[in-house]
Amino acid sequence: MSYRRNCIIATVVILGLVMFIPVAQAQRQDFEGIFCGSITYNVVHFSKEASIMAGDLKGITRSTHESKLFDNWTYHGVFALKGLDGKWSYNGFGKGMGPDGEFIITEYYGDSESGSTGKVVYGTGKWKGIKGEFTAKRITTGKPIAQGTEQFCEKRVGWIELPK
Q: For the range 66-74, what are the long-range contacts, defined as Cβ-Cβ under 8 Å and sequence gap of 24 or more?
């Protein structure tokens, strides 16, 4: 009887201690910002009915969230763009780099009506193992400063999770 009682007590004590062991959880953070950039296009074909081109995008982000996450990050992206009957769609990849030189790689897609949706696929340094998503909507477009370019700003909203 005392052996069984000791086993029950030991089991209760072990389970009680296990309950207080911290469990590693991902650290989720929201972000929001204004991204402004310039695109240079490499046109394969351009007509009113059908267009195919590649874009090379460079820009900078200004955080509008209290966390200031991604404030003053620079960005370089490449994408393929298709236009059919005035409707545009695109797919691409981008590299966002912080002031410390560490970076995040994103994959994104979108169209001229809905805006962009992106997913974080890779990170270096403190961003290693990062997950996240964002959406982007154009808020302004300027008159092109040079032929074959486009200048714009968009609002980006999303979240990231860092492993603990």
A: 67/29, 67/30, 67/31, 69/29, 69/30, 69/31, 69/160, 70/31, 70/33, 70/96, 70/98, 71/33, 72/98, 72/99, 73/97, 73/98, 73/99
pLDDT per residue as tens, the chain (164 positions): 555 555 455 544 454 544 444 444 568 999 999 999 999 999 999 999 999 999 999 999 999 999 999 999 999 999 999 999 999 999 999 999 999 999 999 999 999 999 999 999 999 999 999 999 999 999 999 999 999 999 999 999 999 999 87
Q: Domains of the chain (ranges plus CATH)?
A: 26-162 (2.40.350.10)
Tokens of residue 125, six digits: 């340094």
Q: Which two tokens stand for residue 157?
A: 């909203």
Those residues with Cβ within 8 angstroms of residue 94's Cβ, 6 or more apart along the chain or in another chain: 57, 75, 76, 77, 78, 105, 106, 108, 118
DSSP structure string for 13-41: HHHHHHHTSPPP--EEEEEEEEEEEEEEE
